[in-house]
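Example record for the data management plan.
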Amino acid sequence: MKKTDVIKSIIETGSEISGGIGSALLSAVIPGTTGIIVGGAAAPILTKIFTDIGTEIQNRFLSSREVMRTGAAYTFAIDRIRQNENEGHTLRDDDFFEPIDNNRPASEELLEAIILSAQRESEELKLKFLGNLYANICFHPEINRAHANQIIKNSNTLSFQQFCILQLFYEKLQDTRALKVPKLRADGNWEIKVIDIISETRELQQKGLISIDSRMNESDLSSPIPLAKVNITSVGKTFCELLSLNQIDNGILSKLNDVTEIKY
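Corresponding structural encoding:
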């Protein structure tokens, strides 16, 4: 199968989930003989990676839904790479795309890890952000192989709701910086009270993505969490940025914020 045929086939398999994004890629990217994924010097490198991993995907025995999930994550990754290039970002120029000590390049290993994650992911709202993660790593040389694998591991174990919680804390931080002095609720009852959100927030704390004031009594981990005691960590900020969680639908974030009031 030709390179363009492999890439086109994988994008088509994920179109039920990726929707218009896949259709746009098929019409805008596939027909060209060069720049199959992106333009410029990056085209041959990325085309080879996506072709090789795409061929592996097609040779695996997957259920029909797994085929759709892997195709969608693959599509979202390509789309985010194109966005990054259009925004003027430069593909990393370290050894990310090169084999080292007879090991395959980190770029191939990590794309396979993302595709395997997508295959097993029942929360399909996460697929876009798994694709974003791979694409953004391709433009961030400060994220080495080990760090990237850790972020992928965290993305696998977190729920989509936790993605949303984390993004709200990220946006809260940005708003607080802009306002200089954070607003406070007049009734003083500004805290997370919903039990599943408490649990998921505690898990984010355990993974080092947010911090909760250690002076709090943690003997009862189901007790409400005063939001004045919670902050996103630098690890959490990096997670939000690499997955481009700012692309989460604003309506979804607003509904969650109505319950948590993380952003005030």
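Summary line stored alongside the record: The mean pLDDT is 85.
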